[in-house]
Specification:
homodimer; alpha+beta; BirA Bifunctional Protein, domain 2; Rossmann fold; 2 domains; 9-stranded mixed beta sheet; 5-stranded mixed beta sheet; 15 helices; 23 strands; 28% strand; Pro-tRNA_synthetase (chains A, B); ligase (chains A, B); ATP binding (chains A, B)
Chain lengths: 436, 436
């Protein structure tokens, strides 16, 4: 994208309403604009991050055997009366009447709808297991929307729902999602820690939150250093095989939110292993048995001809929230520091003397080679402004092209995360950016 | 996808509520399920088509110079009061009150919101031109939702909005979209005909509908055979250059809906050139000048320091509607006939004797080679059922593998559109499917 023609409205000043780093930086870097309280429009740079985050989520859901569907945003109130949650949900549910005065709602989650859909389809135990997910906009009418996309009212969530023939099979589905989540967050450059959690209003008896560490985190967490040292990408499990040993590697170490913290177990850890830090929740998985299948009347015929009520779980990732969470975990005074996998653009090409034929030519060559993954700062602006905005927007690489270097065909490559600078030929610079 | 584990609920019987071919076939092929009147969930096969259609739309918008953003579904009523459309829109607008009794609505279109967003950004004539588009779910509370996704209440639309410094520049933006639309529909295997249209409630003075021909079309259209003979993909225009000659090639021939039909001009055509047929609207473009920029208070500073009110246009494609429209244009008695570019899967692998080691092995080899673009019918079912379902679901190729052929390493490849059958080696079959 050429900055002279881009829709990338960066701000010099920090908007007064932004209290946390990600909110401030997303506004300043022109990623989002608020259109109503807790409701945001995603501008080109922000949308590219959102799409990359969503695509990583999708790939890891598919790898774990889940199948993508897309349920609508507007649901019938009657569905929620069947599960008994229509009244329970309270004012966070955006209730709507259509032109015929039918009671509808903007879905905050989809347990009821997916169970109803699946009921239409599944007749036999042979139709199990299935895990269906979708990535769709949800609405929760927060009393105090704040922190930008971290606690918005309209937000993008990936929610998956598993259907199994018995609790053991359901446990396998749960483990598939547990491991898929670890891979998902790791691919985004995040260290996410699974922590036992209360199941809350979704119900059920097994639940983990996935929490990333960030100084600005919303809650206190307690975690063993041994857990932090594990790498989810070190090996890819066979998702059809026995996953218990893989999950046990993670659950054997101490990790707890303040809510679930056990002071005695914590004290038993060697002091050098105790890490107490702030965390941000980015995912949550639940096994809740037959809570929805039973209330919504979902049964299938078992191998013995008798009816079975499928065991279910649900698995959520806050996709739009993740964009903010990544920034909370990765920024400095100058701006955002994007992990390569989710950066809106891999590189900014900074033309320090736009209009100079040599600089222009070298920049155009780089831009042509990098294609859609580059933003080209071709504006007639001061170098200082270009540096500051590239730092603010957090592109992993800055290809800096001034008259002296350009005369020798050299590109100065700056790595945003480390400040490291390389003096490279055009070809080497392109190769280095593409390799990341 | 292995059919034994897929969520692809095909139906033998035609649901009573489905009046038109696309609605019948989308339900029978397990692409969608209605969750409320005019509101649909997209199941895996349907979603894959929706995503491919959306991606083609996206690529052609990008090619023409538009930039993708994503505006929220929920809007403030106040925005619509500024343009004066809040009352005008009538009962089709889904009006909502949030927990604080603020008046909101589920956006049926985005002229107001995008103008307001752009106002925040654009200060100078140098910030023009810009064309911003998004692909987002909309809601129109149709009095009589019907015809499946062709006239649903919640639907996916691509809407683009251009901002220009004067009418000539706006005309250029209009032409960019005109030509992008022709390419978009042609890539989906559709013959779309641009027709002069009334501007209706959006206002303005220049508008074209894009209409595809289908026997089951909703309206009568009149078009010159010379127009039908043009190929939008024959050459790629330079979207930054002069587009008038490209557009003129299309507008010089007669084409009109019943509404705009001119009997005298029609009669002047040679009889062999007159094509009268049924059509379905799949896109609509508008140039409406300063209607929204003026009412919403959008001005930028001109080169002479004086304020300019930007000239605008808007450009819509019904993305979810297109899925139905493609089926209306391409099906037969047995089911859907997908154009290659938008098929949910390129090929179905039909194992005629699941459990036979030779058949299984050959099928697995094909499946491994074709990857996510193949659906593998590995079920223990009769060949007749497998043929019928593959025809119904309309995959462009069927790789038919029975014991006799498998013993010789041969694959029978059937082309869904023509019925043509090829007897090929495994390698040639894979290459043929991938080439399409």
């Amino acid at each position: 994208m050429r900055l002279s023609r881009a829709f990338l409205p960066t701000l010099k000043e920090t908007p007064a309403e932004a209290q946390i780093a990600s909110h401030r930086l997303m506004l300043r870097a022109g990623m989002v604009r608020q259109t109503s309280a807790g409701i945001y429009a995603w501008l080109p740079a922000g949308l590219r991050v959102l799409q990359k985050v969503g695509q990583i989520v999708r790939e890891e859901q598919d790898r774990a055997g889940a199948q993508e569907i897309l349920m609508p945003t507007i649901q019938n109130a009657d569905l929620w009366r069947q599960s008994g949650r229509y009244e329970d949900y309270g004012e966070e549910m955006l209730r709507i009447k259509d032109r015929n005065q039918r009671e509808m709602l903007f879905g905050p989650t989809n347990e009821e709808m997916v169970t109803d859909l699946f009921k239409d389809y599944a007749k036999s135990y042979r139709d199990l297991p299935r895990n269906l997910y979708h990535i769709q906009w949800k609405f929760r009418d927060e009393r105090r929307p704040r922190f930008g996309v971290m606690r918005g009212r309209e937000f993008l969530m990936k929610d998956a729902y598993s259907f199994d023939v018995n609790p053991e099979a359901a446990q396998h589905s749960y483990r598939q999602m547990f491991l898929a989540y670890l891979r998902t967050f790791a691919r985004m450059g995040l260290k996410a820690i699974p922590m036992r959690a209360d199941t809350g209003p979704i119900g059920g008896n097994l639940s983990h939150e996935f929490i990333i560490l960030a100084e600005t985190g919303e809650s206190q967490v307690f975690v063993s250093q041994d857990l932090l040292d594990l790498d989810p990408l070190a090996d890819t499990p066979d998702f059809a095989g026995d996953l218990a040993p893989h999950v046990d590697r993670w659950t054997q170490h101490y990790a707890a939110t303040e809510e679930m913290h056990d002071e005695a177990a914590w004290s038993a850890l060697a002091e050098g292993k105790r890490v107490s830090a702030r965390g941000i929740e980015v995912g949550h998985i639940f096994y809740f048995g037959t809570k929805y299948s039973a209330s919504m009347g979902l049964t299938v015929q078992g191998a013995d001809g008798k009816p079975i009520t499928p065991e279910m779980g649900s698995y959520g990732i806050g996709v739009s929230r993740l964009v903010g969470a990544i920034i909370e975990a990765s920024h400095d005074e100058a701006g955002i520091i994007w992990p390569d996998a989710v950066a809106p653009f891999a590189a900014a090409i900074l033309n320090l003397k736009a209009g100079d034929a040599t600089c222009d030519a070298l920049c155009e060559q780089l831009y042509a080679a990098l294609g859609a993954e580059a933003v080209y700062d071709d504006r007639d602006a001061r170098p200082g402004q270009k540096f500051a905005e590239a730092d603010l927007c957090g592109y992993p690489w800055q290809a800096i092209i001034g008259p002296r270097g350009a005369a020798n065909g050299r590109v100065e490559l700056k790595r945003r995360a480390t400040g490291e600078r390389l003096d490279l030929s055009r070809e080497d610079a392109i190769a280095r950016i593409k390799r990341a």
